């Protein structure tokens, strides 16, 4: 029996990873970059001022693919 559970998954394109690297120092707190997963994509929360930067969306959600 495994105690590990998958809570959610995030998919990243190469461009998204490059953006995370480019903005790492501005958005990281104590050397850790947090990514918010929403129904509208992935976001980098700004630790200095309220707000966040859109990181991207690797694929459209199933409900938007018709």
From TrEMBL:
Keywords: Plasmid. It comes from the Bacteria. This is Uncharacterized protein. It comes from Paracoccus zhejiangensis. The lineage of its organism: Bacteria, Pseudomonadati, Pseudomonadota, Alphaproteobacteria, Rhodobacterales.
